[in-house]
């Protein structure tokens, strides 16, 4: 890719991989780092870059106490992490490798709860002999944390 294209994307860009560029932008008294993915770099002489995401999200650790479903009861609270970006929130449960996303924390947590219940139902109904190492671990964890009421 030519230096001219790099300058077109932004004068302060640094190429990080094939079509991804990093640049900094002042925000108040600090600078934020952003990535730009240039999907059409090889196809057009002056493609329009797209802002990918802010690499410095606000990260919050919190807990959930209910799964929003009367058929399931949490035996204890679940630790989750929220990554808050300008246009999206991602709710994570790293121990089970589950995520939920939404426009705000409520939507992201709701999606994460649905993912937790889907994984629980899938694993509880699957014999241990058919599960790999990680799914067996997730099944044990979920069985300790969730009780099916009905």
Please state the CA-atom Rg, rounded to the nearest Å: 21 Å
The number of distinct structural domains comes to 2
| Widest sheet, order of strands | 1-2-3-4
Query: What percent of residues are in strands?
Result: 35-45%
Number of strands: 10
Task: Write the H/E string, N to C.
Answer: HEEEEEEEEEHHE
Percent of residues in helices comes to: 25-40%
The parts where pLDDT drops under 50 for at least 5 residues are 1-18, 38-54
- Report the major sheet: 4 strands, antiparallel
The overall pLDDT average reads 77
Q: What is the straight-line distance between the termini?
A: 60 Å
Q: Tally the helices: what do you get?
A: 3
**What oligomeric arrangement do these chains adopt?**
single chain
Overall structural class, as computed from helix and strand content, comes to alpha+beta
Molecular shape: elongated
List the defining traits of the structure above.
alpha+beta, 150 residues, disordered N terminus, 3 helices, four-stranded antiparallel β-sheet
Description:
The chain is an alpha+beta fold and 150 residues long. The chain folds into 2 domains: 52 residues, no CATH class; 91 residues, no CATH class. The chain contains 3 helices and 10 strands. The strands form 3 sheets. The protein has a 4-stranded antiparallel sheet, with no helix packed on it. Strands 5-7-8-9 form a 4-stranded antiparallel sheet. Strand 8 and strand 9 form a beta hairpin. The radius of gyration is 21 Å and the shape is elongated. The termini are far apart.
């Amino acid at each position: 890719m030519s230096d001219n294209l790099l300058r077109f994307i932004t004068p302060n860009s640094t190429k990080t991989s094939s079509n991804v560029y990093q640049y900094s932008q002042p925000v108040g008294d600090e600078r934020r780092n952003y990535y730009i993915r240039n999907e059409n770099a090889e196809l057009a002489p002056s493609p329009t870059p797209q802002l990918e995401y802010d690499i410095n999200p606000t990260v919050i650790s919190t807990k959930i106490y209910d799964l929003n479903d009367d058929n399931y009861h949490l035996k204890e609270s679940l630790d989750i992490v929220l990554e808050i970006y300008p246009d999206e929130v991602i709710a994570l449960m790293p121990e089970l490798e589950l995520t939920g996303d939404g426009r705000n924390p409520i939507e992201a947590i709701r999606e994460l709860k649905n993912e937790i219940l889907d994984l629980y139902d899938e694993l509880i109904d699957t014999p241990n002999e058919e599960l790999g190492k990680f799914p067996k671990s997730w099944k044990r964890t979920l069985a300790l944390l969730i009780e099916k009421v009905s």
